[in-house]
Every structure is written in structure tokens, then in C-alpha cells.
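Kindly inspect this one:
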Amino acid sequence: MSKFLALIQNKNKKERSDAKPRAWYKLFSNVKTINIALLVLICLFGVLYLAEINSMAIKGFAIKDLEDKQSALKENIRKVEFQVAEMQSTAKIQERINGLEMVSVAKVDYANTSGTVAVK
């Protein structure tokens, strides 16, 4: 009986050894397919990464331009506010009054309205 078991075990070993090259071939072809798929995915993600970095760089330049415009506008606002303050100063107002060549009033006479006054 032990001869019989030994023959069956040897037969099973032969089947396994025959099956192993086929299994390795299938595994190799699957690994090759997986490697190709991984390579394609890596390339795809690399292209997407470069596109995103490029987009971020473009947005960075746009933001810098907008910040420059903002600082120029702030400077312009500061200059205009300074001009407004200068034009509202009493010295400037007095200068403009003198430029109109008006005569200053020495004495003011007010009309005396004693009694009844009709109001419409």
C-alpha cells in the first residue's frame, strides 16, 4: 500500500511541477499587464501634475499683477486724499477768496421788522 501512496504522491508532484510553469507564465503575463498599467497611470498622473503646476504658476503671476495694481491704486488714493485735504485747508480757501476779488463787508445793517409781518 505504501508503494501505491508513493506513486500517487509522485504523480501529484509531477502535476504540480507541470502546473507551476503555466502558473508562472500567467503570473508573469499578469505582472507585465500590471506593470504596463502602472506605467500608464504614472505617466498620466505626471502629465496631470505638470498641468496643475503650470496652472498654479499662471495664477500666481495673475495674482502678482493684481497686487501691483492694488498697491498703485492705494498710492493713487493716498495722493488724492492729500490733494483734498490741501484744497480744504483755510490758507487755500483764503487764497481762492482773494482770487475772486470780492470786497469784504465792514458793517452789516440788518432790517428791523417790528410789528406784524404777513407771512404767506
About this structure: The longest helix spans residues 2-87.
